[in-house]
Design brief:
Helix content: 40-55%
Largest sheet: 5 strands, parallel
Structural class: alpha/beta
Oligomer: single chain
Distance between the termini: 13 Å
Number of strands: 8
Shape: globular
Number of helices: 9
Radius of gyration: 17 Å
Number of domains: 1
Strand order of the largest sheet: 2-6-1-7-8
Length: 224
């Protein structure tokens, strides 16, 4: 069977990462979490004390950066410069930093290069903000996932609760509104739906329902 490149875009907490991971498992594809790559970038800058407006220092960092995504059935491991940073990049300070570093042109250019290398053989699922529009404009399947901001805030709040992080639901809702605005209005690779993407509203869908829905579309195309 042909090994497809599958792009899943959408705003934060729309369900795309969890769905992408489970869809990858179902298809036995490699899941490439592009958000984790920007988080790793942010962490690298933080560790090295590099300010985000210091472009020469960032350029040097990007020339040397090594990001590997190791597939594990229980969840990918993110290796930054030889160190497993899978847990650290999910912490709140890195979440905000990743959104800020992702709007810097030289950072995006380097990450897109790495993402294209990773996806060049097919059999990959990538999720992010600009996968179907910029990274893989010729992806075999493109999905754009949306959900009501209240529902997205609730999902994120439950994730934080499970990790023992106490953040108010309203603070998360405000953070998501800020991220949506930041992601959609940035000059470089803004969050937007590709013209040929399937739009899926996940507000009232469970993760298994989302995975099934996407699988049906992919398998339906295979049948033709």
């Amino acid at each position: 069977m042909q090994k497809y490149v599958i792009a899943i875009d959408g705003p934060a907490a729309s369900g795309k990462s969890t769905t992408a991971r489970q869809l990858a498992k179902a298809l036995e594809y490699v899941y490439i979490d592009t958000g984790a790559m920007y988080r790793a970038c942010g962490l690298d800058a933080l560790n090295k004390g590099i300010r985000l407006d210091d472009l020469p220092a960032l350029q040097q960092m990007l020339a040397q950066i090594s990001i590997n995504i190791i597939y594990r059935p229980e969840g990918n491991r993110i290796i930054l410069n030889g160190e497993d940073v899978s847990q650290r990049i999910r912490e709140a300070d890195i979440t905000r930093l990743s959104s800020e570093i992702a709007i810097i042109g030289i950072v995006r250019t380097r990450m897109v290069e790495l993402q294209r290398e990773m996806g060049s053989q097919g059999g990959v699922i990538m999720d992010g903000r600009d996968i179907g529009t910029v990274v893989f404009p010729h992806a075999d399947f493109k999905f754009y996932m949306v959900a009501d901001v209240k529902e997205r805030a609730l999902r994120r709040w439950k994730e934080y609760q499970a990790k023992g992080e106490n953040t108010s639901l309203e603070a998360i809702r405000q953070e998501l509104i800020w991220r949506d605005k930041n992601d959609s209005s940035r000059a470089i690779s803004p969050l937007k739906k590709a013209d040929d993407a399937y739009e899926i509203n996940t507000t009232n869908m469970s993760i298994p329902q989302q995975v099934d829905y996407l699988l049906k579309i992919i398998e339906g195309a295979n049948a033709h």
